[in-house]
Amino acid sequence: MNTGNSENISATKEYETRLAGLYEEYYDKIARYVYVHIGSREEAEDIAGEVFLKALMSLKSYREQGVPMQAWLFRIAHNLTVDHIRKMSKHTTVQIDLAGLPADDSPIDGAEKRMEFERVTEAMSQLTVEQKEVINLRFFGELTSKEVSGILGKSDGAVREMQRAAIEKLRAVMGVEE
Amino acid sequence: MSEDFDRILDECVDRINRGESPADCLSQYPEYADKLRPMLKSMHAVQKTYAFTPSPDEKRAAGQRFHAALDKRRQATPALSFLSAISRPAAVATVAVLVVALVATLVILPRVIPETLVPNTEGNFAFLISDEPNAIGDFESLNVTISRVVLRAAGSVKPLEFTPETKTVDLTQLQGEDYQEIWRGDVPAGQYSHVVIYVSGVVGELESTGISVTVKLPSSKLQMSASFEVTTDTVTSFTFDITVVKTGNNGRYLLKPQISESGARSLE
Can you give the pTM of this predicted structure? Predict the structure, then answer.
């Protein structure tokens, strides 16, 4: 009897069930995470769907040790996003889609929202790649610092420090006063 | 001090993510409130700016794709899982037998290849495309390219197919009572139950901006169950009505068959 294989099959089934259970909560978070990177809502939705299919196909490579499954999903999302940006960069500059902003406001409200959007986008662009990733995973993925540390291969303390430095920079560039 | 502050800020971010207000966190750490307040305001500004709720339709469609893949995977697993319970040589032998059986099955059993119909201007069957106006008014043009059409006779396993002579139709020109014949030819007499059109491309141009937009068509085909009869002594004209609908407020469009406006009629 090959009990090792039986255990693997049993673990894979358990992972399948857990992955299915994460879909409802994490689809939206992953879509927002991708959106911050690529700036297109439609493409972010497509990639979020793709993340779960890719995860299902790669369940054998998932190991409990290291990162929780939700953090592993964001690692897949990151890789798919990088691939997407690489493909798109051959054709166009990656830019947040201003057309995605709500259009049903008055012209004054719309202009204010656009200014705010540009202010925040400018602040985000001042962050280092790692700081931006921490902010994105914490604010939009809503992962804990411990989960983020597993994805980035850093200590919890290093992630908290990067988070603080990133928020301070955002505050300074956006000019948010006490 | 700095490490303490990092932990407190981290805790506040977690609590806001769980739905608490920044004020709750500030009141718990009054000694850090002056420093925390602008940082949490910055967090709020960033979250608000990039916040969006994915389209429920998209989420549902992606969920269906995921669950279909999961079901397929689960159905495949039991068939092979018994191999894990037997010895390795026996497993190899079993796989070999299964492969031989599969190859034999593929060689022996004939594949169901659709019968290809040929066009004929005097034929007994005409296939028309029309458009039920929904969101078509949003478009300057909406070109749909149809690569093939498949008809299924009731109770028959062998489908019939034809390649349209006019492959690309502009739905903006086919609204309401307007239609375009894309194929005419001879179709065997009988009762038919199913029509599928395979779409190889959809290109839409918005009237308001002139910008090309993607119109989604899940699985690249449109199909409908439609009971109609084809006879040898009359021309049966079948109208397949396609409609374009807007999905939510995200500027996306979806192509659908409009069954209520579709159907066959005898011309003679």
Answer: 0.56
